[in-house]
Amino acid sequence: MSNQRMYRVTKRRRKKKRKKLVAWFLVPLLLLTITGTAYGAYLYNKAASAIDKSFESIGLSSKREAKVNPEVDNTSILFIGVDDSDSRKYEESTRSDALILATFNQKDKSIKLLSIPRDSYVYVPKKDRYTKITHAHAYGGPKVTVETVENLLDIPVDYYVRMNFYAFIDIVNALDGIEVEVPYELNEKNAEDQHNAIHLEPGLQTLNGEEALALARTRKQDSDLLRGQRQQEIIQAMIKKATTIHAVTKYPDIIEAVGGNMKTNLTFNEMKTFVEYATAKNDLTIDTLQLEGTDGRENNSYVFNLDKDKLTETQNLLRKHLGLTNRKSVGSLSHDDE
């Protein structure tokens, strides 16, 4: 296959159960559906404490004149998965391993989810240079990652949620594993970078946390775009398991996993608003999107070169969803195209 493969934007419009929004790293807040019980009140207070400890502001978006109110405004959240672990000890210098941008339209009660390939070759304002978007987090954590995504997509990013490997592993383990389809045999590192520590055969099966992480991270036999699709499928498997009645007793463990391995500028009350958004009377409409581009090399390293015209289409789609005026010019990856 040519190194200049073109990937088409895939849009899969689906009706979701109202509560399914919660799984995008908000799984612990499923407890809000049972707060009428003593156990629910205990979970509610436990979640509030965990989220409060995870709060870390990055200031107001440069593309907003005032702070948004998710109860009435169209908003956006950037979900950042980072490849940190005890063996790496990168802390704030870690790279992002997964980026998913979610925009929320209050009037339509709809969501658009955009997976951003980690090797996308983009302009990073903080460093005034082009590089892979995965490096943005190493240059300044969530703040620089958010600024880079804002520059790339020409939209405000109001909130972020950053989680590391351990949160993912602990949530899956707390749920006693998740059932997913493994597309091919794979041998992967575990969270501590031990080579070939995880071996999976193809087929539908129940994976533990380390195995699910290996499947989410691998990209040896396909592409960054297919990797993004796998990550969405894995998260949906987490949703399915987390919304079963048997999972309720697991919520304390899930809250502990999230609270100890997450940073966010969402307050607990703002998170509650998004849960209430998800449990509105009408079913949510969720569109999943991917960027289009071609394989390339810069400084002897693989990069994913985003198609400018298709980028503009995606920018306009997201801007319209947020109630913003569309761009008229051809998309650019530069800070000069304003």
Automatic annotation (TrEMBL):
<keyword id="KW-0472">Membrane</keyword>
<protein>
    <submittedName>
        <fullName>LCP family protein required for cell wall assembly</fullName>
    </submittedName>
</protein>
<dbReference type="Pfam" id="PF03816">
    <property type="entry name" value="LytR_cpsA_psr"/>
</dbReference>
<feature type="domain" description="Cell envelope-related transcriptional attenuator">
    <location>
        <begin position="95"/>
        <end position="242"/>
    </location>
</feature>
<keyword id="KW-0735">Signal-anchor</keyword>
<dbReference type="InterPro" id="IPR050922">
    <property type="entry name" value="LytR/CpsA/Psr_CW_biosynth"/>
</dbReference>
<dbReference type="InterPro" id="IPR004474">
    <property type="entry name" value="LytR_CpsA_psr"/>
</dbReference>
<keyword id="KW-1133">Transmembrane helix</keyword>
<comment type="similarity">
    <text>Belongs to the LytR/CpsA/Psr (LCP) family.</text>
</comment>
<keyword id="KW-0812">Transmembrane</keyword>
